[in-house]
Each structure stands twice: as C-alpha cells, then as structure tokens.
Amino acid sequence: MNFQFRAKAVAALVPIFLATSLAADPLPSWNAGETKTAIIAFVDAVADPTSEDYVTPADRSAVFDNDGTLWAEQPAYFQLFFAIDQVKKMDASDLKSDALKAAAAGDIEALLATGKEGLLEVLAAAHSGMSVQEFKANVAEWLDTASHPTTGQPYTTMVYQPMLELLGYLRDKGFATYIVSGGGIDFIRVLSEDAYNIPVNQVIGSSLVSEYVEDEGTPMLMKRADLFFNDDKAGKPVAINHHIGKRPIFAGGNSDGDFQMLEWTTSGNGLSFGPYVHHTDADREWAYDRDGHIGVLNRGLDEARERGWYFADMAKDWSVIWPQE
Prior knowledge:
Number of helices: 13
Distance between the termini: 40 Å
Strand order of the largest sheet: 2-5-4-3-1-6
CATH architecture of the largest domain: 3-Layer(aba) Sandwich
Radius of gyration: 20 Å
Oligomer: single chain
CATH topology of the largest domain: Rossmann fold
Order of helices and strands: HHEHHHHEHHEHEEHEHEHEH
Largest sheet: 6 strands, mixed
Shape: globular
C-alpha cells in the first residue's frame, strides 16, 4: 500500500469511528483531535474480524522507541546519567582520559565536548568488565536511588502517561508491544516490565559483546567493551526482523533515529500506522525538534505528512504528561 493511499485509508475510517464508538475512552490523557481519532480508528479496523483491514493477532505487533517516546530524554539520555554515576565510583587513578574525568566530575557539557568517542568510552567503562547479572543489579540499584538532575524525580516516574495508555490499549486489542531502542538492551530490560508492562523478551536494543565464561566452576555471561549491535536508524528494521521475524503494523518514535523504523513498518501490505511524539511543551516537559544534540527531528518533520504519518503534539494532544499528574 503506498503512502498516499494509506493516509486516505485511515482518514476514511474516522467517520465510521465517530459514528459508532460508544465505548469508554481508551486514551483518557489524549485530547480529542486528529491523532487520537486516527489511532482509535486504525486499531478498531485492524482488530475487527468483520473489517476488510482486519489483521490476525499473530500479525498485530507494535514497536516503540524508548528515549523521548516512552520516557523523557533531556538534558541527556538517562542511560548516560547512569554511566556517569558509575564512573564517579571509579578509582581516581583509572580516570585517564578527558571523557572519564568529565564524567566523574558530573560535567555534562565537557563530556559532550569529547564527542562520540568520549561518550562511548564512558559507556564502556560503566557497562563492561562485569557479568550481565552484576550489571543488571547495578542498574536496578541506581533506578531505586537516583533522581533526575532537573526535575529531582526518580527516572522511572518520568514516563509518559499517554504512551502508557496507548501501550495498554494496543495490548487490550491483541497487539504485542515491543521496545526498539538505541539504548542498551540489558539496561532497558531491568525496567521494562515495571515501567511499561513489556516483558524482557520484547525488548530490542543496542548491545555490547557478551562472552560465556566459567569462574571457579560458575558459568556466567561477561560484558565486554566491544559494540555488538547499534540499534539505531537503519539498524532498527534489521533488529526487528532479527528478533521478531515479521514487519510490525504500528511503529512509534520521536526522532530521525526512528525514521527507518516508521518507514519500514508503514511500507508493508495492508493498513499500518506511524506516529511521532513531538516535543512541543516547554512548560511541562521540553520543547525541541530540529536543533539540539538529542532527539533531533528534521526528516520526520519534513516527510511525515506525505507519508501518512501522524504527530502526537505534547502541548496540544496530551492533557497530562506524567503519571498521577
């Protein structure tokens, strides 16, 4: 189905939804508008066995980016804050580079100035040289005790209530929901079930090389510093195919790092849906899109409409941002 036809197909469902829907609002934190109406119309169509757009439950899968889509990502990715806090625990004699010294000092600007190589060095220092089990224990402890530098809130409370509702609504309608993130797969698996009700086997992310070893007769998986897979941009469709084995029919993101995931998802046969979370609310969250070092959205803004994709405008479409707001 081409992009223009797909947009017309979803639009054609909207009057049917408005005329027939008597159910309780499945997305109460979403304001009435084009995007909310289109989401519900799409889900109703693919979940209705009498619809010509019906999709069997086995093929009803939805994939979501994490940072900036399911939870916040400013002023830096939360996983980077975790890495910085881990580096702060390192012995001073091991802080041999500008990047590690900046991280240990909590100087985000200086760390970002070291570029991609510096960031990767800090991430490697915090994520390797230990077993997978030990790493996950470190993440769990950090999530229980750390707070966001701007809001002062625990990181796990900075998830988006409207997206939690969307995940639940899709699952209620027979969808399997997956996280497909540029963040680390082992990091996200620590929080995915409690934060999003997404099981660990439905988390896809970037990963370091793991090695099977025996330590005094105890088998374990050790995390090495080498990158195994970068789950970003064109890597996301590759990872989806590798982990899921089929094309999703719903893909949500917030940046150009998610473009290929939305493009691949919505280029299949049959009805599909591609929404972007658009950060437009500087009062309740952050406002950013084309400029910045995180969550940059250029190609998506330029091409989304012609491809039949939608925007969840935070300021306009969401009545609340955070849970229990």
